[in-house]
Amino acid sequence: MAREQEAAVERRAWKKPAGFLGPLLLLLSVPLQALAADPLPSWNDGPVKQSIIGFVTRATTEGGPGFIPPEERIATFDNDGTLWQEQPVVQGAFLLEQVKARVKEDASLAKQQPFKAVLEGDLALLSTMEEPELMALAGATHQGKTQEEFAREARAFFQSARHPKLGVPYTQLVYAPMLELLQYLRAHGFQTWISSGGGMDFMRVVSEDLYGVPPQQVIGSSLKEKFDDAGGHPVLRREARLDHVNDKAGKPVGIEQHIGRRPVFAAGNVRSGGDIQMLQYTQEQPRAGFTLLIHHDDAEREFAYEEKNDASLKAAREGGWTVVSMRQDWKRIFPGGR
């Protein structure tokens, strides 16, 4: 009976038009008057929460020294480890399924790289890959597929895949405090953008439903594409060549290419130093921007991990960035509790 009830809940969660809206709907179910009294209810009261509210207040107080014109209120967010969990990297789990499907179609691929290494190392290997390696694997796996075909496969993954440890859909593992922050910023005239090292097309499948960020406001790593007339039915096909790696120094480049303005608010996380340059780029401007760094230090409710060289926390100390301790600063991590 319990399993039947669980299945019924899942069917309701995935029924259109709700799509992937589970976490966002949970957030929006909070009474508006409660959000007005406390716009960040999943954040513990303290210096971090007050610094965010203080920045937004100054930025939107016309005539004040910290006022930012609405057209300049650009906020960029990393995705993996900043808006949702990254142990394992979600796109890595998706690519593993795609590799297995390709090998099922052509068994000889199991002896070829990178397929052989992925199959032998499974998710453990994929979790250690840098963004260029993941995107190269994406190219090898999806070469020749149309954007529509890729989107269908990504949607099917999100509807069926479960986190290997937590046992729930990846779409339920977005961070409740960050959903609140996105909504809080938008309510005060900020444009919210995703600027992630992950695959741009992969994130665009769910960004609007999960975060309220439309696909045209997602910046990420990408493969080259080519136009195919397809007998009068034009499509874009993916190639096995990297176009842009939106990680580390590539993030400011991607932001400039897609937005054309420096962010005045940026959020990243401690993992591989991938967000340092985006945060530095946001901070160093005539009007100092707000920089937020998520530190994964909650092994009980999520995961605890550090960078080998401590580069992000060192940069945060030097730059005076606001560092979020998930253990101390967040009342809850996921929308469903926990």
From TrEMBL:
This is Haloacid dehalogenase-like hydrolase. Residues 1-36 form the signal peptide. CDD domains: HAD_like (cd01427). It comes from Corallococcus macrosporus. It comes from the Bacteria. Keywords: Signal. InterPro entries: HAD-like_sf (IPR036412), HAD_sf (IPR023214).
